[in-house]
C-alpha cells in the first residue's frame, strides 16, 4: 500500500460538477484517491483553447501543485508547459469532454514531461452509435416519409403504393452492405450493433491500423467505393480542416439509387447544397442528425423534402452520457494508479490523426 493516497483534482464550472459527477463514481474514486474540485468558469469553445488571465493561471497553478492527477473540463484553463513545470507531482492529466481536440491540454508538453494525458470524450460515442443504427433503420424503412404522411392527415397508402415504397422494396438491414466513413469509437460500437444483421461492411478511414479491419472483419477501401457500393452510407468522420466539405457533389453523386445516407457526425463535412440537390431527385433517402448550418434554418429546403428524416443534433446528448465521461475517467485513473496501461491516451500521434495532419504538423 502507498504511504498516502494520490491526490486527484477536477477543475471545471459548476454545471460539470453537478451534472457529470455521479455519487457512485465519486465513492469509487475515494477508495484509491483523495478528490478535490476547484470551480472556474472561463469561456469554453470547441474551436480554441480557453483564454485565461494571469491571475486565473496563478490561482489554477497554485491549486494544481498539490495534485498527482489533474482532470479538466468546461470552465478550466489550458494545462500548459508552464503549468506542468510548476507542478512536479503531476503525472496524469485528463480531459472529460474535449470534443477530440484537447483544447485544454498541451499534449506535446505532457509528452515531453512524461505525464500521461488522456481524454474520455468518447463517453458520448455510446448514444451516437445507437442513434446511427436507428437512423439506418428509419431510412431503410422510409419511416420519415411515412410519418410525414400521417401527420399531414393524408390517407393511408394503397396496396399498390405500398409495393412501390422504398421501405417495402429495400426496408431490411439484414444482409445489406453498409459503408462507414470513419471508424473510431463510434464506428466500432456500431459494428458490434450490426453483428446480428449479418451485414457486409466497407470502411474508409485512412488513420486506423489495418489489424482493426481484421479484428472487426470489415473491408478497408476508398471513399469513392464507400459512397458508391453500399445500401447504407454512414458518416462518422470528425470535422477537421481535411474533412470539411469532403463529401461534395461528386461524392454525393456516387451514392447508388435506392441507398440511404446517414450523417451523425458533423454537418460541415457534407456540401449541404449538393445533398439537397441529390435528394430533390427523389432516388435516395437521408437520415440526418447534423446539418450545415446549425440549427437548421427554418426556411431550409431540407426540412420539406419527403425523403429526409431530421433530428436536431441529439445523437450524443443523453443524461447517461453526461455521467459516463467521469465514469470512464475514474476507470482510467484506477488503471493508472494500479500500474496498468490506460485506454484513452492522448499523444502527439493521436492528435495528428484526429486533426488529419502528419505527426508534428500544426
What does this structure look like?
- By secondary structure, the protein is α/β, with parallel strands linked by helices.
- The chain has 2 domains: 7-120 and 319-355, NAD(P)-binding Rossmann-like Domain (Rossmann fold, 3-Layer(aba) Sandwich), CATH 3.40.50.720; 125-310, Rossmann fold, CATH 3.40.50.720.
- Helix content is 38%, strand content 14%.
- The chain contains 16 helices and 12 strands.
- The strands form 2 sheets. It has a 7-stranded parallel beta sheet with strand order 8-7-6-9-10-11-12. The protein has a 5-stranded parallel beta sheet with strand order 2-1-3-4-5, sandwiched between helices.
- Strand 3 (69-72), helix 4 (81-85) and strand 4 form a beta-alpha-beta unit.
- Helix 2 (23-30) runs parallel beside helix 15 (319-337).
- 40% of the residues are buried.
- The model has no long low-confidence stretch (mean pLDDT 94).
List keywords for this structure.
single chain; 2 domains; 16 helices; Rossmann fold; alpha/beta; five-stranded parallel β-sheet
Instruction: Specify the number of helices.
Output: 16
User: What is the count of structural domains?
Assistant: 2
Number of E-type strands: 12
Strand content: 5-15%
Task: State the end-to-end distance.
Answer: 43 Å
Q: What's the overall geometry?
A: elongated
Give the radius of gyration: 23 Å
Largest sheet: 7 strands, parallel
Q: Which range best describes the helical content: under 10%, 10-25%, 25-40%, 40-55%, 55-70% or over 70%?
A: 25-40%
In the CATH hierarchy, what is the superfamily of the largest domain? NAD(P)-binding Rossmann-like Domain
Q: Return the string of H and E elements.
A: EHHEHEHEHEHHHHEHEHEHEHEHEEHH
- CATH architecture of the largest domain, please? 3-Layer(aba) Sandwich
CATH C-level class of the largest domain: Alpha Beta
Stretches where pLDDT falls below 50 for ≥5 residues? none
Which class do the helix and strand fractions yield? alpha/beta
The CATH topology of the largest domain comes to Rossmann fold
Strand order of the largest sheet: 8-7-6-9-10-11-12
Mean pLDDT level? 94
